Amino acid sequence: MATITIRNLDDDLKAMLRVVAASHGRSMEEEARVIIREALTKQDKKGGLGSRIHARFSTVAGADLELPGRSSKVRAASFDE
After folding, report:
1. What's the number of domains the chain is made of?
2. 48 belongs to a structural domain
């Protein structure tokens, strides 16, 4: 396991971390690990913008739509006339 030191942490931020950690029944160290883990694993989301919008609003009544499959690779827009 690696060790990390965070210097110059704002006092208010440290106090907020302490309160959140206590509310979850964890130490500040464990709470910081959880926050970092969650922040970094959120980046692994699959799909593009359309898929993420669909996932967010699919629970709204009448918005359950099938996404069409992509038949070609993504390409840059062309604005030539």
Report:
1. 1
2. yes
Burial of 16 (0-12, 13-18, 19+ CB in 10 A): exposed
Residue 15 domain boundaries: 11-57
**Angle (deg, nearest 10), helices 28-41 and 11-23:** 90
Tell me the mean pLDDT in the region 52-80: 78
Residue 71 lies in a domain: no
* Choice between 55 and 22, residue whose per-residue pLDDT is larger: 22
Residue 15 falls inside a structural domain: yes
pTM here is 0.52
Start-to-end CA span in the chain (Å): 58
Q: Phi-psi category of 53—alpha, beta or left, where left has phi over 0 and alpha has psi -120 to 50?
A: alpha
